[in-house]
């Protein structure tokens, strides 16, 4: 059996995903040229950095041996995350960044089409059996609901009550829900029974937690430090608050508040976040989430070629990147 990496699969199917999105835009009709141009511009200038659109393909292939039928779900993934990431930037006050020739208002309207209307057109296309269209539509609605619930909790994060458990709950919603959405959609499309669909959803949720932690690390490594500028309660911060060493918990909370406006406070707080005891706890918990993802994959079983690629994707998301010497100089928000 030849080996397959998730990057190999991404290179193979990227043109198919793009064609699926183009077909969905064409189904809007000839009177929707402005919409098509705006969405195309948004996608071009908000291209997703990591090839996670392979996730539903790998789930479907693990069940059936064939990734191709899940291309529409991968297209939904690309559209959903393009929309969600832009809305997240708006919430952070950076919505006008990197939208090409679109004004902020045009980009916002394109985001509504991208995240809501086009996924519905894809689900209603002839490529999707009518018998599962209702279930897939419900998944998209549930994915948005869970992610927005998590994002609202994230915006209202309180360092005084933050724990690793409370942050895990937020991550499970704001990142776990959309990944659980596409893994459940792919499993449903494959014809898997309801029990397996729920197990694949759980795998997606755990993967989403890992990927959010991966993203948190990149925020520090690039020097953007947008989480500190926005007062976001990250999992790493929760580890520091629970360890409360070498600085008292109250001092860490004060630095969190000051970090929104003070470069010095951010630098001091980053130093505390990268203390060995904090990073040790962080590393152990990442390993725990990785082990849970592996446990779910082992229990699900399926086509081993594609399960191996899924494990590679888990390993990539579970990489421990942070260390005391791994942080770049701080950059201006949005320039990382």
Note the beta-strand portion. Answer: under 5%
Provide the succession of SSEs.
HHHHHHHHHHHHHHH
CATH topology: Farnesyl Diphosphate Synthase
Which regions are unreliable across 5 or more consecutive residues at pLDDT < 50?
Answer: 331-336
> Considering DSSP H and I runs of 4 or more, what fraction of the residues is helical?
over 70%
The overall pLDDT, averaged over residues, is 90
Number of strands: 0
* Major sheet details: none
Class by alpha and beta content: mainly alpha
Query: How many domains, as an integer?
Result: 1
Label the overall shape.
globular
- Straight-line distance between termini: 40 Å
Summary of the model, kept short:
This protein has helices at 6-26, 33-45, 54-64, 71-92, 104-123, 130-155, 164-174, 176-190, 194-221, 226-230, 235-243, 249-258, 263-273, 276-300, 304-317. With 336 residues, it is mostly helical.
